[in-house]
Design a protein that fits this description.
single chain; 510 residues; alpha+beta; 5-stranded mixed beta sheet; 4-stranded antiparallel beta sheet; elongated
């Protein structure tokens, strides 16, 4: 930067010289200080015992507070005393070794290897090592048991929960997934990429794409008896659309060498927009809905079929849930009362009951069994957003929340939960298996855990760099077949994963 006046250059030079001297001066001070400390702690120039530390520190140029310097000197003194003790012990051990060697030599005992000194050292070291080993075993027995038990739990989880298939093809996070209740059995996923995809469960091949929404597809549910799907979207509508799919023929067993080569490339190394060869662009696409349910003034976050499939319910960010006639798309009831945005809705599998959850920390039970009376009950069991509440086949409701708890309620007496599950992360859309009533909890921290209805933890799905989700797990869904069943999970890492759960072994471990 230019300076004013012609004499500024000379002045600058003078100041530069003085600054250089000032820059060297602290270095000299630090050097002198380090030498002073070294002299102070030297055994050759140790101060008299009666000399105070304050007197010792006088004349030493340092910016450290006196109390801090005193603490440092105390520490240095302790270190010095420790080394002195070790030195004295070392001398005593050497004397004992010499005396033992003299006794061995006097008795005429020869030590293997020809060197009695080494033999005696070996004996002494072995004795010390055995004592140390015994002490370590006693001290760390409990910790080791915990570590080993955690390893056993992980191995057991992997044996009980095995990866079945990965379903990759969406170009954005997957919010929801569901399994059809009719033949052919396929998996449906709803994604933030404005599409819903249908998959072959066995092969992982994408069979059909629905592209009728203009916003994120937030949920997908299949009709109980017909080949129809119900999807909710951020475009403030819910669509009912028909599908026809044909399952592919079973694939031959893969080549082991080829699969190993493919496993060498971690799935996390894929680019953000990269998908498998059988992506949504290469499958049949449905773009027109059979019926459009549009009465909301905000994002439709979830939708479900009532028992029988003649009516459907939707939940929205406009704080209301709507009940529609499927055949006419007519709005039948508007369910209001929540103070904040709704997060989920679910219907009872056999009765005309609806449960809605909200960010207002409550969930509500709506009863449509009596056509003339539509009662509602409010439940305040959580302290944060209720992310989902679902019915079981029995008379229970299971609710999950961002407060890191899951609560099990009895429909006959819902004053307080009958079980509470506490976790280490927020819980998203949960699901309960119909036959064994096992709760699958998807978490923000990428974990998926399994619990029974009494709150006992059964297993945790394996997760590593090559297995499991790499980002938040959004939803779970069950597909049961006798004693063996499949659990499907989806997350914001753009993939859905199928897991084979050995129910018999899982309950036996319990």
């Amino acid at each position: 930067m230019p300076v004013e006046g012609g004499s500024g250059g000379g002045g600058g030079g003078g100041s530069g010289g003085s600054s250089a001297l000032a820059a060297r001066h602290p270095k000299q001070k630090r050097k002198a200080h380090s030498l002073s400390i070294r002299r102070t702690n030297s055994t050759e120039e140790r101060p008299p015992p009666g000399m105070l530390r304050g007197d010792m520190l006088e004349g030493q140029d340092s910016k450290l507070p006196l109390s801090l310097r005193n603490n440092l000197l105390d520490l240095f003194g302790q270190i010095e005393r420790e080394f002195e003790n070790l030195y004295i012990e070392n001398i005593e051990l050497r004397r004992e070794i010499d005396s033992l060697n003299e006794r061995l030599a006097g008795d005429g005992q020869a030590v293997e290897g020809g060197d009695p000194t080494k033999g005696a050292l070996k004996t002494k070291a072995s004795h010390s090592t055995s004592q140390l080993s015994q002490r370590l075993k006693t001290t760390y027995k409990a910790s080791t048991s915990k570590i080993v038990s955690s390893f056993k739990a992980t191995a057991g989880s992997r044996a009980l929960c095995q990866l079945l298939k990965e379903y990759v093809g969406h170009r954005d996070g997957i919010w929801d997934l569901s399994v059809t209740k009719t033949q052919p059995v396929v998996l449906g996923t709803a994604s933030a990429d404005h599409s819903a995809l249908l998959w072959s469960i066995e092969t992982g091949k994408c069979l059909l794409r629905y592209a009728g929404h203009a916003g994120s597809v937030n949920s997908i549910k299949f009709h109980p008896t017909e080949q129809m799907a119900l999807t909710a979207s951020g475009d403030q509508t819910a669509h009912i659309w028909r599908y026809m799919v044909q399952l592919p023929a079973p694939q031959p067993p893969p080549d082991v060498n080829a699969s190993q080569c493919e496993d060498d490339q971690d799935s996390s190394d894929r680019e953000e927009g990269e998908v498998d060869g059988e992506g949504p662009c290469e499958v049949p696409t449905v773009r027109v809905a059979t019926a459009t349910l549009k009465s909301h003034q905000g994002v439709v976050i979830a939708a479900d079929w009532l028992v029988g499939g003649r009516q459907a319910v939707t939940a929205s960010w406009d704080r209301a849930a709507n009940l529609y006639e499927v055949e006419t798309s007519e709005l039948v009831h508007t369910l209001t009362g929540h103070d904040q945005e709704l997060t989920h809705c679910c219907t009872h599998p056999t009765q005309r009951l609806v449960v809605t959850s909200s960010r207002d920390t409550t969930f509500r039970l709506w009863d449509f069994r009596d056509p003339s009376i539509h009662s509602v009950n409010v439940f305040q069991g959580h302290t944060d957003t209720v992310t989902s509440a679902v019915f079981t086949v029995g008379d229970n409701v299971v609710s999950g929340s961002d407060d890191r708890t899951v609560k099990v309620w009895d429909l006959k007496n819902m004053r307080s939960p009958i079980a509470t599950i506490r976790t280490d992360s927020a819980v998203n859309r949960i699901s309960v298996s119909a036959n064994q009533r096992i709760i699958a909890l998807p978490h923000d921290n990428r974990q998926v855990r399994l619990f029974d209805m009494s709150g006992v933890r059964l297993a945790r799905l394996p997760r590593s760099n090559r297995m499991g989700h790499r980002r938040m797990v959004c939803c779970t869904a069950w597909n049961e077949e006798n004693q063996s069943c499949n659990l499907f999970t989806c997350g914001f890492d753009r993939q859905a994963i199928g897991w084979n759960i050995n129910i018999a072994a899982l309950l036996q471990e319990k």
